[in-house]
Amino acid sequence: MQHNYNYKLYLDGLPSVTVIKDTSGESILDYFHGIPVGYYDHETSTNMIYNHLDITVETHETMEGHQRVVAFDVEPFSLKDDENRFIFS
C-alpha cells in the first residue's frame, strides 16, 4: 500500500518470501522478504487489500527418511484482480 506494510509467516522456523513474477505471471523475477498487505492503485487512488495467498512449500527428504522444509514461498493476490484464478480446466 502507500506505506509498504507487510508481514511474515513462518513455517518450521523458516520465514516466508514473496514471489515477484513478470507481467505474464510465468517467470520469477525476484523474491521479497515479507508479504505485502496490498497495494495502492494509482489510477483509482484506492488501496487494494490482498485477500488470498498462494503458498508453496518445498521439502527435501533427509537420509533418515524425514521431510525437511527447504523453501516457503507466498504469492499474495486478490480475486478482484484475477477472478479466473481458481477455474481449473
Notes on the protein architecture:
The protein is mostly beta strands. The protein has one domain (about 5-75). The protein has no helices and 10 strands. The chain has strands spanning about 5, 10, 15, 15-20, 30-35, 35, 40, 45-50, 50-60, 65-75. A 4-stranded mixed sheet has the order 5-4-10-9, with no helix packed on it. The radius of gyration is 15 Å and the shape is elongated. The mean pLDDT is about 80.
Concise structural overview:
It is built from no helices and 10 strands.
Ends distance: 33 Å
Characterize the quaternary organization of these chains. single chain
| Helical proportion, percent range | under 10%
Uncertain segments are none
Give the beta-strand count: 10
Mean pLDDT across all amino acids: 82
Main sheet attributes: strand count, strand direction, barrel closure: 4 strands, mixed
Order of helices and strands: EEEEEEEEEE
| DSSP helical segment count | 0
Q: Please, how many domains?
A: 1
Binned strand content:
over 45%
Question: Quick one: overall form?
Answer: elongated
How do the strands line up in the largest sheet? 5-4-10-9
